[in-house]
Structures are given as C-alpha cells and as structure tokens.
TrEMBL record:
Signal peptide annotation: none
UniProt cross-references to SMART domains, sorted A to Z: EZ_HEAT
Gene3D superfamilies recorded: Leucine-rich Repeat Variant
Name the record gives this protein: HEAT repeat domain-containing protein
Length: 329
C-alpha cells in the first residue's frame, strides 16, 4: 500500500486531473489506514492553498483523517490548519478546527500556537467546533498556560454554554490557568462555583475538583473557595450536597484551619439522610477539630448522636472528631 501512496504523492503536485485523482485516493486510504496515508502529509499540506475547491476540501479532509488516526503524523499541518481558520468556506474552516483538535489530543504542545486563533470558535460554529476549540485550549492551558491566557474571558463565557462538554473543557482550561497565574484565581473560583449545580454530573465533578485543586495550590484562594462552596451545602439536590461536602473535605486535608468558617454549615449535614454526606461532613469536622478543637465545638451534640447511632463507619469517624474537642473537659 505504501508504494501506492508514494506514487499518489507524486501526482499531488500535478495541477491537472492527476492531483484530483490522487487527493481523492489518499482521502479514501486515510479513512481506513491513516498511518499509511500519513506518508502523504507533506504533499497534502501545500494543497490547502489550492485554487481548486475540490482539491482543497479533500486535502483538508484527508489531513483531518490522518490527524484522527495518527496525530503525530499530522503535526506538520498545524500552521496550515491555523491559516485556514479565516477561510470563507465553513467546511474547510471547521475541518481545520477539528484537525487541530485531533493533533492536540495526541500532542498538546504541538497545538500551542493554535490557542489564541481558536478563541473566536469558543462561541461560534456548530457544537463540534465549539467543543473542539474548548478542548484544544484546555490542553494548551495545561502545557503552556501563557499561550491560553488570552482566552480567559471567553472561557468564562463558555461556562454558560448549552453543551456540557464545552462547559467541562472550559472549566478544565480555567483551572489550569488559575494554577499558573494567581491573578486568574479569583475569577476561576467564582466562575467555577456556578457550575456546582450544573445539570450535568461530569461538569459538576470537574468544577468541584478544579476548585479543590486551586484552593490547595494557592492559600490565597482557599478561603474564597470555601466561601463559594458553603453556598451549595444546603442544596435541595443530595448529589450537589454530597459533591460540595466532599470537596470541602478534600480541602481540609491540606488546609483544615481555612475550612473553619464552614463548621456551622457542616453541622446540619451530620444529620443528613444520606450516609455518604454524613460521613464526609464528619471527616471534615474531624480534620478541623484536630487542628482547632474549639472551632468544632458547635458539632458536639450532633457527633454524640452519631456515636449513639447504628452506622459503625460513621460512629468511628464521629469518635475521632469528638475526641480532640472533649479531651480537655
């Protein structure tokens, strides 16, 4: 098959019917055997500038297919894809976004230069394009945050996008930027907190984990994170309560004193009808009590009730929580 592709590559330089036949054949091969078609990548990229719409579209399509199956092989096409983001042909424009997305999935660093040009696509085009743009910027933010930093405002706007995956990838990118740039931490925490009651569980989980990571990574944002989380502890949805208290518990592992303002809000959860919520609340209060017993005093009555209960696991955690509080009395 490869000798055949090599022969087709020679025809790609042909400005006549030969080029059309060759690019058509390479596209067909790329659908089933992208690794084989990858040998034609250096012949396909120049065709992105072809005046023939048929040749241009198929060259882009073939390269996207190669990027899907063999991202590393398509890296030479990154800059050419970027140049197509301003193309008047929506098919080509969208193909360029998707192609960059596949390359970023396999080699995030190769897509760094695409981060800023992709910003407009966070809020335009079809869902696949928006999702891909958000994904690429999120991956770039993890590996080269300075390149993705100009996208922060657009990413915040994406937290209200209709598509869950766009919201999820935007949350990932915002979190990565916050960890690399302290000035983005406040914006990140406040924006991500809005997603804690998102209708999509994956989005909620990503927002919560990101808030916890920011809170543990920079003490300046631990208190703002706790304040944001507290507002969701009385949510009517038990899934949101569980996620919120679990996130607070995660933060107590690194910053138990910073969680003290949450004690009064955690105490009611000791009587929650959902055992996993009770368990997380007890765990958080135990960590606080270990470092600041007096701060955990409001929880004593509820802890005693749990100790007298029938759930052995919760009993053990309640005993651990109450011991530092009562040892001086």
């Amino acid at each position: 098959m490869i000798p055949a592709v090599d022969s087709l590559c020679e025809l790609l330089d042909d400005e006549t019917l030969g080029a059309k036949l060759a690019v058509t054949a390479v596209t067909v091969i790329a659908e089933d055997e992208p690794f084989v078609a990858a040998t034609a990548i250096h012949g396909l990229v120049p065709l992105f500038e072809s005046d023939d719409p048929y040749i241009k579209e198929l060259a882009v399509q073939a390269t996207v297919l190669i990027a899907h199956g063999s991202p590393a092989s398509a890296i030479p096409a990154v800059e050419a894809f970027i140049s197509l983001l301003d193309d008047d042909n929506a098919f080509i424009q969208h193909g360029a976004v998707i192609g960059i997305g596949w390359i970023a999935k396999g080699s995030p660093k190769a897509a760094v230069s695409a981060a800023e040009p992709l910003i407009p696509f966070l809020t335009m085009g079809d869902v696949a394009v928006q999702k891909t743009a958000a994904y690429v910027i999120a991956r770039v933010a993890e590996h080269a945050p300075e390149a993705a930093a100009p996208a922060i405002d657009a990413l915040v706007a994406c937290l209200a996008a209709e598509t869950p995956y766009v919201r999820k990838h935007a949350a990932e990118a915002i979190g990565a930027l916050a960890l690399s740039s302290p000035k983005d931490g406040d914006t990140a925490v406040k924006s991500l907190a809005l997603l804690l009651d998102d209708e999509d569980e994956r989005v909620r989980e990503k927002a919560a984990r990101t808030i916890a990571t920011i809170a543990k990574g920079d003490s300046e944002y631990t208190r703002p994170a706790i304040d944001a989380l507290i507002t969701h502890l009385d949510a009517s949805d038990p899934n949101i309560r569980e996620l919120t208290v679990r996130t607070i518990t995660e933060i107590t592992k690194d910053a138990p004193r910073a969680v003290i303002p949450a004690v009064d809000h955690l105490v009611p959860l000791l009587g929650d009808e959902t055992p996993v919520i009770q368990k997380s609340a007890v765990t958080a209060i135990a960590a606080i009590a270990e470092h600041s017993p007096e701060a955990a005093m409001p929880a004593v009555d509820q802890l005693i009730t749990l100790i007298e209960g029938e759930n052995v696991s919760i009993q053990e955690k309640a005993v651990r929580a109450i011991m530092p509080i009562t040892e001086d009395y």
